[in-house]
Amino acid sequence: MKKDDLEKAISDLEIADQRGAHDYNTNYYLGKAYYDLREYKKALISFYIARVFNPMDTTINLNMALCCDKLKDKECTRRYIKQYLQFKPHDEKALVLLAYTYYRTISNAWQWFYDKVRL
Known about the structure:
The protein is an all-alpha fold. About 80% of the residues lie in helices and about 0% in strands. It has two domains: about 1-55, Serine Threonine Protein Phosphatase 5, Tetratricopeptide repeat; about 55-115, no CATH class. It is built from six helices and no strands. Helix 1 runs antiparallel to helix 2 (about 25-35), helix 3 (about 40-55) packs antiparallel against helix 4 (about 60-70) and helix 4 (about 60-70) packs antiparallel against helix 5 (about 75-85).
């Protein structure tokens, strides 16, 4: 979608939400639109609210993990990926994302160590 289309969709969804359309679909699609606009914190909040309405939708956990990853919050990413993997333990995309968060942690630790001992 184009940026203008996404912004219009967000505006319409926010108006619907303000008028009392507090439901799964409104918040889920609001989260997707925010994510596409790279407004990851707002997307995370919208997905969280959508999950309140439909806690069995495992896709929301994956979307929340992707938002956390974009926000560079490794613990948040791991939490939602692990919740997602409880229902879909063989999802390659989720397993790769989880492994990548651990790789970044180890890589950062090695970089810190290298910087400290470098002569």
